[in-house]
């Protein structure tokens, strides 16, 4: 026997057809029917605003008209909700529904992301509004943009503009989607520093992930270090063995070095072949300027303090993950326009979101741009989340969507058909196979 479930929500009755009912608000009414005219109304629990009620109807003997079925109800909180029904709430629910044979509340607490934020539709530009923010241009305006580009580009022939007559002129907007993320990874590394006296940090060390650390700026590659509290230990310097000084590496402890002017001979030969004493040294050797003839220097490891403080350092890595793609409905229309130019061109902001996680557009129950583009953005988000595997813990994500108006102009030069594009709100120009007048600059 299949139990038919019904929910009355705001005057609307929703038939589920199964024995599981999603309760979306406390105090709602649930109606159970066995399909033979037997109905039973129960009040739902009020402990949580979102719960799942499982109702199992069991037929006892031959159930006839007016018979009351035996019902068992179990309540479970979904992932991300906290708290369990109290004993008083359970007793009140049983008292309000004496026909329930058994009632077993069970709560499940998990770390699930919260629901996506509410978006004001007035702040969202749909794709049709892109043409309002960046209106169409005429052929004359396209020719003016081409003339300005040819004048400003030292390698483009300006005289060729006079031979251009546009045959066809059309528009197809491109959607530039940029996804950014910052992942964090941590590890422990041994470190030491000279001991300059005073107290050191000893005791119970916390979990390295409990130490707060923020990047200087989101979505950049960065490395930071911080000492782990409670991990410091004082030890004798391993380099000087507690002496504070080490052998001079320049003279190897001799205090004197070979003269660079006479190569240790002690004499110099002039142009006439006469030998004379080297004025820069005495007998081919000169005083070591590093140790001042002492043969030893201050230990660079402990800075002459003879002791070191050894500790564990928490090394924090912030990794940047980027996913950039141009979405267009007419790929052949934009085939000759490099995507790098579309990405760098100024456009119309259509969708901007920054949070600890970017949610798919389908969860907002509204079309931000167009159904086709929204579905492709959702596919990009799913692909983007897999790109961060192995890079650490996700800290923040950002999604930026802009619309770039693109105008394609076709013209003839001789017997060949050529094309140039006017794109972006700044009306930048990209001309395919445009005549070049080399000015011998370094960029042509």
Notes on the structure:
With about 450 residues, the chain is mainly β. Among the domains are: about 100 residues, no CATH class; about 170 residues, no CATH class. Strands 10, 11, 12, 19, 20 and 21 form a 6-stranded antiparallel sheet that branches. The chain has a 4-stranded antiparallel sheet with strand order 2-1-4-5, with no helix packed on it. The protein has a 4-stranded mixed sheet with strand order 3-6-7-8, with no helix packed on it. The longest helix has 17 residues. The chain starts with a strand and ends in a 13-residue tail after the last strand.
Number of strands: 24
The structure class reads mainly beta
> Mean pLDDT score, rounded?
75
Radius of gyration: 39 Å
Q: Figure out the total of helices.
A: 5
Can you give the helix content as a percent range?
10-25%
Question: How are the secondary structure elements laid out?
Answer:
Layout: E1 4-9, E2 12-15, E3 20-23, E4 29-33, E5 39-43, E6 51-58, E7 70-77, H1 87-96, E8 100-107, H2 127-133, H3 139-152, E9 166-171, E10 174-194, E11 222-227, E12 233-236, E13 245-247, E14 256-258, E15 267-269, E16 275-277, E17 285-287, E18 296-298, E19 307-328, H4 339-344, E20 348-355, H5 371-387, E21 393-404, E22 406-413, E23 416-423, E24 428-431
